[in-house]
Recover the amino acids of this structure.
């Protein structure tokens, strides 16, 4: 009988190993992996050593390092379960009509998530949304979270002067998102626990949470209540940097007051430009047509240098949101000038001269491969005149950059198999591969989905953490559809089962 969820496993029997960097001699042979005290202690031919304690029968499946999502907005992703999906809305009118039929939540609001307006044939207006939604405060969140469409009732409820088109962008949109995410802790914590169980069922053992909040308080509370499904590293935003420094938070140290070292301090997160979907990513060439703008830096180089200098001096890594090529160049410049360490988040449009700088500066490329497929048509239209490289993966990898994969959930679903498939096959739903020269090999994609990333992946070897996932699909040989449909039979966090199918 297989052990139940929560059990500490001592032997994972009859498995085939799959990992980017292997030190074992077993190739495709069946092996037993022996665990103790949260670590791998031995790997031996199947049946060669006594199988003592709780045994998880792998039945010939594939054992991989546990997977990480390096960019999640946890509360917002958890709340998506209560919000109306707008991904299928092909026009502003269709999105407004969907919201008119959406259920009213317990707080008296309608909230939708996931619209993509950049390719709509009609323009969103407040009048259009008012006609469909009436007097119920209604909020439509863009898929990239950089804009929110509100009706007049929502503007009144928030005490904000309405705009003609009903749109708020960048920081005003983020403020609306923060307000919508401020639900009762008992409710949000329940939804976060549900989210964590779903993530574990996909082989996930850890996440980087970049919610726009003072995250230590929430995660310490969850840890005290028994949250133990995932490793968590939480981000700190500039508005809380002084507090973090004054209270002595340092990247990698456990959260205070939680009683669990599963929850640790992560990086300073700084958003330096906008997004492609909102047409606010800072680019060197203008967007086409009536847009005729180049986006904008929301945090300029001098301010960014000050933030990163203070963070690095206090022992905090930096995670710098940069989507357009201008934003990426500025972020790399500041990493070079300050000696700060960490990642650039997204790196969706990168100047060719900047690609090797990631590796030279030791700056990780924290990227979301599914975004390339979500945005392929938008990229072909709005960035057709750009000379920088859109959504580089192979170029960054070949240059020696450390790739770290994530979802940016709720922008994309928290599903590492979708990210791996997108990186390896650069396609979805049977379409031709988009920019196929930027595909990477499966083992590099698998490594980028572990805690250390593609240049320093988690290994399966004696002494390594027993953060592992057992899957039915061979991640090295699977096609796009098979990778996306991968069934995870078991997930182990420090040798303890967090998921068992």
């Amino acid at each position: 009988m297989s052990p139940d969820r929560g059990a500490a496993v001592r032997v994972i029997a009859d498995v085939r190993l799959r990992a980017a960097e292997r030190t074992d001699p077993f190739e495709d042979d069946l092996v037993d992996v022996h665990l103790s005290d949260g670590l791998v202690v031995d790997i031996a031919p199947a049946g060669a050593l006594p199988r003592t304690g709780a045994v998880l029968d792998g039945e010939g499946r594939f054992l991989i390092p546990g997977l990480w999502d390096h960019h999640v907005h946890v509360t917002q992703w958890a709340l998506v379960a209560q919000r109306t999906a707008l991904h299928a809305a092909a026009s502003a009118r269709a999105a407004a009509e969907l919201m008119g039929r959406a259920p009213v939540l317990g707080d008296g609001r309608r909230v939708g998530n996931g619209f993509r307006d950049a390719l709509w044939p009609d323009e969103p207006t407040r009048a259009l949304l008012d006609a469909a939604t009436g007097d119920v405060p209604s909020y439509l969140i863009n898929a990239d979270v950089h804009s929110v469409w509100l009706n007049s009732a929502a503007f009144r409820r928030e005490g904000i002067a309405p705009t003609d088109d009903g749109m708020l962008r960048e920081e005003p949109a983020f403020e609306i998102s923060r307000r919508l995410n401020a639900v009762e802790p008992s409710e949000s914590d329940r939804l976060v626990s549900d989210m964590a169980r779903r993530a574990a069922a996909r082989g996930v053992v850890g996440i980087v949470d970049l919610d726009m909040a003072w995250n230590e308080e929430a995660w310490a509370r969850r840890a005290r209540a028994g949250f133990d499904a995932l490793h968590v590293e939480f981000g700190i935003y500039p508005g809380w940097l002084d507090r973090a420094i004054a209270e002595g938070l340092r990247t990698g140290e456990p959260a205070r007051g939680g009683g669990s070292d599963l929850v640790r301090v992560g990086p300073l997160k700084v958003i330096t430009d906008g997004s492609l979907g909102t047409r606010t990513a800072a680019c060197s060439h203008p967007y086409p047509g009536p847009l005729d703008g180049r986006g904008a830096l929301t945090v300029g180089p001098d301010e960014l240098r000050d933030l990163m200098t203070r963070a690095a001096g206090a022992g905090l890594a930096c995670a710098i949101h940069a989507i357009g090529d201008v934003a990426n160049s500025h972020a790399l410049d500041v990493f070079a000038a300050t000696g700060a360490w960490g990642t650039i988040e997204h790196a969706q449009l990168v100047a060719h001269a900047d690609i090797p700088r990631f590796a030279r500066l030791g700056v990780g490329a924290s990227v979301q491969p599914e975004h390339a497929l979500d945005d392929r048509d938008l990229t072909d239209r709005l960035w057709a005149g750009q000379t920088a490289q859109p959504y580089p993966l192979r170029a960054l990898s070949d240059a020696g950059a450390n790739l770290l994969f994530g979802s940016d959930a709720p922008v994309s679903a928290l599903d590492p198999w979708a990210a791996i498939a997108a990186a390896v096959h650069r396609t979805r739903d049977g379409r031709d591969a988009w920019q196929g020269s930027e595909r990477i090999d499966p083992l590099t994609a698998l490594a980028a989905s572990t805690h250390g990333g593609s240049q320093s992946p988690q290994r399966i070897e004696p002494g390594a953490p027993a953060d592992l996932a057992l899957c039915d699909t061979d991640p090295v040989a699977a096609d796009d559809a098979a990778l996306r449909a991968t069934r995870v039979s078991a997930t182990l966090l420090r040798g303890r089962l967090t998921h068992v199918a």
